[in-house]
Design a protein that fits this description.
Helices cover about 20% and strands about 35% of the residues. By secondary structure, it is an alpha+beta fold. The radius of gyration is 18 Å and the shape is elongated.
C-alpha cells in the first residue's frame, strides 16, 4: 500500500513539473527589437517583457510561411501586433507569429 502511495506521489510531481515547463502563448505589441542582444520586447496586458531569440526560434507569417529573415524581418517592428510561443523557461521565444505586411510595403 505504501509503495502505491509513493508511486502515485511521484507521478503527480512529474506531471505537475511537465505542466510548469509547457510552452505558453503571449500576444502583444512589439516595443523594441534588439538585433545585437537578439531580444524582442513585447507589451502585453501584464506589462512589458523581453524574450530571447535564438537560432531555433521560428518566425512565421500570418499564412504559416517561414520568414527567412528571422529577427531582421521588416514586419517585426515597433508597434507590430505579434503572437509568441514561449518556452518553459519563460525567457526564450520558440515561435514568433508575424503580422501581414502593410499595403505600402507590399509594393516593394
Amino acid at each position: 500500500m505504501l509503495r502505491h502511495s509513493i508511486a502515485a506521489s511521484v507521478l503527480v510531481l512529474v506531471f505537475a513539473g511537465g505542466l510548469l515547463a509547457a510552452d505558453k502563448e503571449v500576444k502583444g505589441t512589439v516595443v523594441k527589437v534588439d538585433l545585437d542582444k537578439k531580444t524582442v520586447t513585447v507589451k502585453t496586458e501584464d506589462g512589458e517583457k523581453t524574450y530571447d531569440i535564438n537560432d531555433d526560434t521560428k518566425f512565421l507569417g500570418p499564412k504559416g510561411g517561414v520568414s527567412k529573415e528571422g529577427i531582421k524581418d521588416d514586419r517585426l517592428a515597433k508597434g507590430a501586433e505579434v503572437k509568441l510561443v514561449i518556452a518553459g523557461n519563460n525567457r526564450t521565444a520558440r515561435e514568433v507569429h508575424l503580422p501581414e505586411r502593410k499595403e505600402k510595403d507590399k509594393d516593394k
